[in-house]
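Regression test attached.
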Amino acid sequence: MKWFLISIVSLSACTTSKPYFEYTFEKGFDDLHPTSHKNPWAFVLDSSVVRSGKKSVRFEVRKGDYRFSKRGKKSSRAELATEKPISIGQEYWFSFSLFIPANFPIEDNRLVLGQWWSEPDEGENFDRSPPMAFRYRNGMFYISLRASAEKIMKENGKEIILFETKKYPTGKWVDFIFNIKWSYRGDGFVDAWMNENKIIKYSGPTGYNDDKGPSFQFGIYRDETEKTYVVYFDDIRVGPTRQTVEMKK
Ligand SMILES: [Ca+2]
Ligand SMILES: [Ca+2]
């Protein structure tokens, strides 16, 4: 009984003051899993462009950098994945800081900088889009959402654009905060702030009817092009309250 009480106390202390997990890149990549091309510049700790502390992570994809996915698909990507799924039906807070360099190529090429990725159930064998994606294409930054209540999906659900801007500030850090509840049934929501400005207020179905909830992955995932892409990330946090994921002032 004594052990039981101690466990409850420590769990509640943990859920009120700390994120569930965070990545600040001060000491390395922790348990992040790469989904990157194999060249050494795919992802590195960087100390020249940092949001906090002394290091961030720098991603780079050059012409000819690619990998093959488990399903044999060739993809041009340098990414890290959290592999810590968030339960469907659970409200949580999420933050990250992104730096897109001022000289980043403006071209009409598919590019995903971050996504909440959801593992397909058995039988979902098509090229399924993620439930949420952060994209930058032709100078347009946008955040998209998909939802489907079908247990075994046969095709991608409709894409909803939650936010888009042609005035994304490159050459500086941008802080994002999200409050999300994944729920394909309709009682889901997404609220978001970009540098403390409210950019999204959505309620309705979010995500898919899957055995496992979505997990975050980030970096560069693009279609092939001649040009080199570089971006930086820092301070990725997932937690139970806004306070647990906000940047310390
Ligand atoms: Ca850092
Ligand atoms: Ca499913």
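Expected vs. actual: identical. The chain has one domain: 2-245.
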